[in-house]
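Sequence design from tokenized structure. All designs in this work follow the same two-part layout: the structure record, then the generated sequence. An example of the structure record is given first.
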């Protein structure tokens, strides 16, 4: 074991500490620390930094809601453009005095 870490784990008094948490400054054994952004953090500090990740199985629901909101927003936007296109095409041809309006992006 590395002699630099002479302390014992903050959670396990009988175990040799192998890492020092940069957030709380306590020493921990290999089992009590987790790598996060190239730093070794204890489970307590990791939970403080990323509270969403510690929430567990409820995460996928939040992602699904965000995804559905994005989809519905995109659909509304597309439908709005579709209605605008329909409105423009519904205008009589002689109103435009030409064929420029027919060769727009949605007819290609
Ligand atoms: Zn810590
Ligand atoms: Zn430990």
């Amino acid at each position: 074991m590395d002699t630099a870490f002479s302390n014992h784990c903050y959670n396990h008094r009988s175990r040799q500490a192998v890492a020092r948490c940069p957030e709380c400054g306590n020493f921990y054994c290999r089992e009590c620390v987790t790598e996060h952004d190239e730093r070794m953090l204890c489970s307590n500090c990791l939970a403080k930094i990323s509270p969403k990740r510690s929430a567990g199985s409820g995460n996928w629901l939040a992602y699904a809601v965000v995804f559905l909101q994005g989809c519905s927003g995109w659909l509304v936007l597309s439908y709005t453009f579709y209605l605008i296109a329909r409105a423009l095409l519904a205008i009589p041809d002689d109103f435009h005095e030409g064929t420029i309006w027919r060769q727009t992006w949605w007819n290609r």
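The CA atoms of residues 3 and 18 lie 10 Å apart. We note this feature because it recurs in several other targets discussed in the main text.
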